[in-house]
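Researcher: Let's do a round of design. I'm pasting the structure tokens now; please hold your answer until I've finished.
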């Protein structure tokens, strides 16, 4: 199944939306969110909101990426059907809550919350937020799923830093319980409260933190991953043995190198660079092996090769 990008309010679901017998959920007044970017994190976030009966407007830059996002959601919902967590009716209703758009300008009309999940580069996010600031409803909350870029700096791109917040989800979004709720210097406490409430509505556990490099999650996680890479780089152990030690000895569900592949080695490197440049502390310097692997294009699961082959 695929879903055409909406450019002017038209989509493949418009017929079913008009038929109350086929779809009475869509007929009722629904809460609306927009998700900018349909990659791994974006499509996971979209799925989560759709499962909780929000109308979700996903923005992707072209039809191919939009199809990919939609298919990823469909595959994950199929997994839930197979495990009898939802039935086929719920799967259908959830997919009907997903609407794909090419332009954020069209997508964000009427959205109360807009979550950005585009690649982890300040300049890309800056462009997205300038655009959103112009087109999003005045009272909408602008949230970013950034892993480490300063919330305060991103908020400053907009004219509404008080309504700007970090809503940091974890991969795989449908499974991981945590939402790290990051307030920037100017974030309104009422906005923090609303995002915490929303996270709870989605069955997640929100944990509030203040804006600081890498927040808490990645400030703690990335040095551990980096140190694991140094162990391999210096020949102390193989990737398999490093991971076995951390799984069996420390009870981690995945070893740090398997996790690094899962997150994406480019993402790990970006976050370490943010930590290194922000704190100017050598303890965050990325391991040369990580830099080489990213240069070689071995980024982990998404390229089929990292510390492991996929
Ligand atoms: N989407 C939806 N559900 C998924 C999924 C996915 N992509 N992958 C796994 N699941 C579900 C399975 O259906 C299963 O559900 P069930 O227990 O109810 O039957 C459950 O998760 C466990 O999956 P599996 O049995 O297939 O496999 P595992 O037991 O090996 O678990 C894992 C997979 C949940 C990914 C587990 O290995 C894990 O928790 N790993 C650590 C993940 C982690 O640390 N994530 C955070 C990364 S950091 C981050 O995202 C922040 C960023 O800023 C870098």
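Researcher: That's everything. Go ahead.
Model: Designed sequence:
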């Amino acid at each position: 199944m695929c879903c055409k990008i909406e450019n002017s309010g038209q989509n493949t679901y418009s017929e079913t939306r008009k038929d109350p017998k086929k779809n009475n959920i869509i007929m009722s007044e629904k809460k609306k969110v927009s998700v900018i970017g349909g990659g791994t994190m974006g499509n996971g976030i979209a799925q989560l909101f759709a499962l909780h009966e929000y109308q979700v407007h996903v923005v992707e830059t072209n039809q191919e990426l939009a199809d990919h996002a939609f298919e990823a959601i469909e595959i994950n919902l199929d997994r839930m059907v197979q495990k009898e967590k939802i039935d086929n009716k719920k799967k259908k209703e959830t997919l009907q809550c997903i609407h794909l758009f090419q332009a954020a300008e069209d997508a964000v009309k009427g959205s109360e919350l807009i979550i950005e999940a585009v690649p982890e580069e300040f300049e890309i996010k800056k462009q997205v937020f300038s655009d959103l600031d112009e087109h999003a409803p005045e009272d909408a909350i602008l949230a970013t799923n950034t892993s480490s870029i300063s919330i305060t700096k991103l908020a400053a791109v907009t004219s509404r830093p008080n309504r700007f917040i970090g809503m940091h989800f974890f991969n795989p979004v449908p499974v991981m319980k945590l939402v790290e709720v990051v307030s920037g210097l100017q974030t309104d406490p009422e906005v923090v409260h609303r995002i915490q409430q929303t996270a709870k509505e989605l069955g997640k556990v929100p944990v509030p933190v203040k804006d600081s490099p890498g927040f808490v999650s990645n400030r703690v996680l990335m040095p551990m991953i980096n140190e694991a890479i140094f162990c391999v780089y210096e020949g102390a152990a193989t990737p398999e043995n490093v991971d076995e030690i951390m799984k069996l000895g420390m009870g981690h569900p995945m070893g740090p190198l398997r996790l690094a592949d899962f997150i994406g080695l480019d993402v790990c490197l970006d976050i370490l660079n943010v930590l290194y440049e922000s704190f100017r502390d050598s303890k965050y310097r990325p391991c040369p092996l990580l830099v080489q692997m990213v240069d070689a294009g071995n980024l982990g699961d998404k390229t089929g090769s990292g510390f492991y082959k996929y």
